Amino acid sequence: MSERSPSRRSLLKGATAALLTVPATITALEADPLRALVAAYRDECARLNAIPGDIPDDEPTPVWEALNEGPLPVAATKEGAMDALRLAIEMHKDFTYTKAVPNLMQAALGFLEGGIS
Question: Which PROSITE patterns match (predicted)?
Fold first, then answer.
C-alpha cells in the first residue's frame, strides 16, 4: 500500500499561492473600512434574498441601518471610493429615497478630496 504523497515542493507552491491571494483580499478590505462596509451590505442583501417569501419586518439589517444613519468612514482607497459610488448608483435606481445614497457619495468624495475621517 504505497500511496504517493505530494512532494514538499508542490506543497510549498500551493501554500505560497494560497498565502499570496487570501491575505491580499482580507487586507484590502481591512485597509478600507468603507469598502468592507459595502461588501458587508452585499452579503446582507444576499442573506435577505435567500429568505423564502417576504422578508419579515423584524429581520435585522444592521448594515442597511449603518449606511442610512451615517456618517460613513471616508474611503481609504480608490477602489473603496469606486465601490461606494457603484453602490450609490445601484441604490438610487432601486430605492425611491434612502439616506444611504448621499452618505455613500460623501464618503467617496472624502477620499477624492484627500480627507480622512
Answer: TAT
pTM of the model: 0.70
One-letter amino acid identity for 2?
S
The answer to whether 80 and 104 have CB atoms below 8 angstroms apart is no
Residue with cell 465601490: 83
Q: How far apart are CA 102 and CA 98, in angstroms?
A: 8
Q: Of 49, 43, 32, whose CA–CA distance to 107 is shortest?
A: 32
- CA-nearest of 29, 23, 26 to 75 is 29
User: What are the pLDDT digits (tens) for 21-68?
Assistant: 445 455 556 799 999 999 999 999 999 999 999 999 999 999 999 999
